[in-house]
Design a protein that fits this description.
Layout lengths: L2 H4 L21 E4 L17 E4 L1 H7 L9 H22 L5
Antiparallel strand pairs: 1-2
Length: about 100
């Protein structure tokens, strides 16, 4: 199953307050960064990605500044990963 393609047209699950554009047309799979799973030129596995709008993705990847601390942004992203995994489990796309 291609989890990146499944992200297309979905609602953002990261939902950073005051940042999220709520536009499913901009949603992509945003990979969560974690030491040991990702690094320079290496993304974490698709299972550790969140459905994320372009605005939230820009903040998570550091392309856009925000009033939130790095830990708050990481928390929002991680919560988005969990919401995304839950939706995928309910749809039968991944198994629990």
């Amino acid at each position: 199953m291609n989890l990146r393609k499944l992200a297309q047209g979905r609602d953002c699950q990261v939902r950073i307050q005051g940042v999220c554009n709520f536009d499913p047309e901009t949603t992509v799979l945003a990979h969560y960064r974690l030491h040991g799973l990702s690094g320079i030129g290496m993304k974490s596995p698709d299972a550790f990605g969140a459905w994320c709008c372009s605005s939230c993705h820009d903040v998570c990847d550091g392309r856009k500044r925000s009033v939130f601390s790095p830990s708050e942004i990481a928390q929002a992203h991680l919560e988005g990963v969990i919401r995304t995994q839950h939706a995928l489990i309910l749809e039968g796309a991944i198994k629990a």
